[in-house]
Design a protein that fits this description.
The complex is a heterodimer of chains A (528) and B (300). Chain A has 528 residues and is α+β, with helices and mostly antiparallel strands. Helix content of chain A is 28%, strand content 22%. The longest helix of chain A has 19 residues. In chain A, 47% of the residues are buried. Chain B has 12 helices and no strands. Chain B is elongated, with a radius of gyration of 24 Å. The chains are: A alpha+beta (528), B mainly alpha (300).
Chain lengths: 528, 300
């Protein structure tokens, strides 16, 4: 009897200890953004002591290494864009401006960079040439145990020579896109904590992260350039779409990007909705190794059978920009608008093409869609209905993201899939390389010698004009062969609380915090 | 618990996609996948990997999270704490509301229909929906708490308590309804028994009879049920944590499964299994305390 009583007491004691957190780990620094007192006031109410900080909501955690050379998820790179910089960095217009380098010149196959004076890492150490070479080599050389380099394109570097504060990089042949790769982050050579406590040179420095909860960034006081306006930004992770809405309305969150049109419509007067583009190529990707998608007539029939404008109207409230190939408008000179409406909505033409190909009564197919991307699910549902008109019975198969990656993307076990593909670097090559027949990420199994020729021509082109023309021909090839049913570049709807301004859209998937600030009127209340 | 941990481990081999491809995402190439798998030890046979994990577990080493590169214990400690608090508050809420409610309404015929209907409603409405409703009405509408901004308990204990209360309410309502129904039926059953009639005939106060005798007999099945509920709550908290944006164990479990973060999933599953076992044991102990017949080895 006594022993049992003691056991219960012990149990209760243990419970109490865990609950009070004594002796437990304290990996949990969860500062809140936007409020200085309590939790009942929404942030929008101007209080005398409102802090110069905001809370940004994101729908997915950065559940991977924060090391910028290693991180692969678009969501991670989107946030950490504010923490790291390369020798050059992108502008909202898609140009590259000097960052860690103060100036650069390029002459065919030779690039010369001048290291900027006074650039500091977030840990206080000055940036030196050794750090630059270390950062480039880390991406250029094969990893330990022979793993392939992180940025294979850097194999084009023939030699790197440093003299004082000048770095000269010589390529083995001229390459107009090479500069884009030098947006790779410059990291301190002697620091190995990047996975969990990253250190860079950007306008914001990393402070802390609590898994599945938040990430905190703070203004870097010693930034070399014009620093950020905000003192602190807290990224809050909210997966549930209704909770996203409520967090915005309650004042918990001040900014949320990539909203659906439904969510944006439900937000009231407290918010401005900024519209940019997601910079994705959304398409129904077809597996060319599967019948009947190996027949160009069938693929073209699908292109004629799908009314893309209707998809935009039904699933996205009209938002989005139509595309006709693997390229989106934000890429400027590489985008060929004449391809956008190459395939008009024509049910009769679709039926006759199918009949030619031997499917007068249509056929059935499966569209595999990742279950965590509602836009693609919605798109697929509209497609299913549209395909019925031409006799094609499509069935949607929802799979979890991990399964999609392993079965569809890596394993190529699918017939069709609806997904959005992004450009990992701001180069046309990033969007078009995967369709060359030998590419490792050619998940649609595209095999066209004419395409390969165009792509090779572009990659080894001597000047910008020739390169752009060759890339455009590659794009046209994709359209004419109906490699996939290209749909749109989705609109990026960003809810911004009134009183905040400075959101800038880039042609890549990033969230630039450095320009965001409270407007002059609302700033009057800020305590400096 | 050995079975549970092994089954979880084995389950991961059955589903498509592993930690390597989850980590590499769309930048995966066959070479990179192979290299990462070797690094993570995923190319070793299942039993070897399981054995390694088991060994680590018994020496207190839960491993390192593949996704977050943090020791699993450190990663989960604050989340366990939070989910435990949520479960406790829910449990107290369920007990505090359903026992009086169940006892008081037992044997009363008035408004039987309405009461049954309400009860059914309570059981049927999912916590997800109730949670959203509560957030909407009390959070966005009345501003009693700010959905999405769970305060740090160290800085604002009252705020955190209120927030948890609402989350707990969403979680508890279906279970309150179930407990009430169960309690009513057991109490009613007891009330019909001879000893009750005898006691009342003898002149004992009805309330006293209820408390001293009936409750003691009616409670054991309810206590067992509550223990099961306690175990269940932790599972139900997954959904409530997502709706109320609380960084608890449930959300961590879901995201870790999706991200194939084996060490974290293993640890959480073992913790949950432990929790179920403890809840069951506690229930047994309480029941034995109340009813000598249930004690092993006869009455004390």
């Amino acid at each position: 009897m006594k022993r049992k009583f003691l056991a219960v007491l012990l149990l209760l004691g243990l419970l109490g200890t865990v609950l009070c957190g004594c002796g437990g780990g304290s990996a949990d620094k969860t500062p809140e953004g936007g409020q200085t007192s309590g939790s009942n006031e929404p942030a929008a109410q101007p209080a005398e002591t409102r802090a110069n900080e905001i809370t940004v909501g994101i729908a997915q955690d950065l559940d991977e290494s924060l090391d910028p050379h290693v991180a692969v998820a678009a969501g991670t790179k989107e946030v950490m864009f504010n923490v790291f910089e390369g020798l050059v960095k992108p502008t909202p217009d898609g140009d590259l401006i000097p960052a860690v380098a103060s100036a650069f010149t390029s002459d065919a196959a030779t690039y010369t960079f001048t290291l900027r004076e006074g650039v500091k890492f977030h840990n206080g150490d000055p940036v030196e040439m050794g750090d630059v070479i270390y950062s480039i080599d880390r991406n250029r050389l094969p990893g330990e145990s022979g793993a392939e380099p992180l940025i294979p394109a850097l194999a084009a570097i023939q030699s790197m020579e440093a003299e004082g504060d000048t770095l000269t990089i010589t390529l083995d042949q001229p390459n107009n896109e090479f500069l884009s790769y030098l947006t790779l982050a410059i990291l301190p050579e002697d620091y190995d904590g990047q996975d969990t406590a990253p250190v860079g040179t950007g306008p914001f420095k990393f402070v802390s992260r609590a898994a599945q909860d938040n990430i905190v960034l703070e203004r870097f006081e010693d930034y070399w350039g014009q620093g950020a306006y905000l003192d602190k930004v807290t990224f809050k992770i909210i997966e549930n779409s209704d909770s996203i809405l409520m967090s915005l309305q309650s004042g918990a969150v001040d900014l949320f990007a990539h909203l659906t049109s439904t969510q944006a419509a439900q937000l009231g007067d407290e918010f401005n909705i900024e519209e940019g583009t997601m910079n994705l190529v959304q398409a129904m990707y077809l597996n060319h190794a599967e019948k009947p998608f190996d027949d160009v007539r069938v693929r073209q029939a699908l292109c004629y059978a799908i009314d893309r404008q209707q998809i935009l109207d039904l699933a996205f409230d009209g938002y989005g920009s139509l595309i006709g190939s693997s390229m989106y408008p934000a890429f400027g000179k590489y985008f060929d608008d004449s391809l956008t409406n190459y395939y008009t909505y024509d049910v009769e033409k679709a039926k006759s093409l199918l009949a030619d190909a031997g499917y007068p009564d249509g056929f059935s197919m499966t569209i595999t869609v990742p279950s965590n991307y509602q836009p693609h699910i919605d798109t697929a549902q509209v497609i299913v209905e549209q395909l019925k008109e031409v006799g094609v019975t499509a069935e949607i198969q929802l799979v979890e993201w991990g399964s999609w990656l392993s079965d569809v993307y890596a394993g190529r076990q699918y017939q069709a899939t609806v997904v959005g593909v992004d450009a990992s670097t701001m180069t046309a090559r990033a969007l078009l390389e995967r369709f060359s027949s030998t590419a490792g990420n050619n998940f649609i199994n595209y095999n066209d010698s004419e395409y390969d020729a165009f792509f090779q021509e572009a990659v080894s082109a001597a000047d910008d004009a020739a390169q752009t023309a060759a890339y455009k021909q590659a794009e046209a090839n994709l359209t004419k062969n109906a490699a996939n049913v290209y749909i749109q570049d989705l609109a990026d709807l960003v809810a911004v609380r009134k009183g905040l301004e400075g959101v800038r859209f880039y042609p890549i998937y990033v969230l630039d915090l450095s320009g965001i600030r409270y407007t002059a009127l609302s700033r009057r209340d800020v305590v400096i | 618990m050995l079975m549970v941990s092994f089954l979880t481990f084995a389950a991961f081999s059955l589903i498509s996609g592993d930690a390597a491809i989850a980590a590499l995402g769309t930048s995966a190439t066959p070479e990179r996948l192979a290299a990462l798998r070797a690094e993570l030890g995923l190319d070793r046979p299942l039993l070897v990997r399981y054995g390694k994990w088991l060994l680590g577990f018994f020496t207190g080493d839960l491993g390192v999270s593949i996704s977050y590169q943090q020791p699993v214990g450190e990663l989960l400690a604050p989340k366990i704490r939070l989910t435990l608090w949520l479960s406790l508050v829910s449990f107290l809420l369920i007990t505090a509301v359903s026992i009086p409610l169940g006892v008081l309404t037992a044997g009363r015929r008035r408004f039987e229909g309405t009461r049954t209907a309400l009860n059914q409603l309570g059981m049927a409405v999912p916590p997800f929906f109730t949670g959203m409703l509560l957030s909407w009405v009390f959070g966005v509408g009345l501003k009693w708490f700010a959905p999405g901004q769970f305060p740090d308990a160290k800085e604002d204990f009252a705020g955190a308590a209120v927030y948890l209360l609402f989350a707990a309410a969403a979680l508890s309502i279906p279970r309150i309804a179930m407990t009430v129904r169960m309690l009513r039926s057991t109490v009613q059953e007891e009330l019909g028994k001879d000893y009750v009639r005898t006691a009342i005939a003898r002149g004992n106060d009805r309330g006293q009879v209820l408390r001293r005798h009936v409750l003691k007999n009616a409670l054991p099945p309810v206590v067992t049920f509550l223990a099961q509920t306690m175990a269940e709550i932790v599972a139900g908290s997954i959904v409530v944590e997502q709706v109320f944006v609380i960084p608890g164990l449930g959300r961590m479990l879901v995201s870790s499964i999706g991200g194939r973060d084996y060490p974290v999933v293993q640890a959480i599953v073992v913790i949950l299994a432990l929790w179920v076992v403890l809840a069951g044991t506690a229930a047994d102990l309480i029941n034995q305390r109340m009813d000598p017949r249930l004690r092993l080895g006869g009455a004390a």
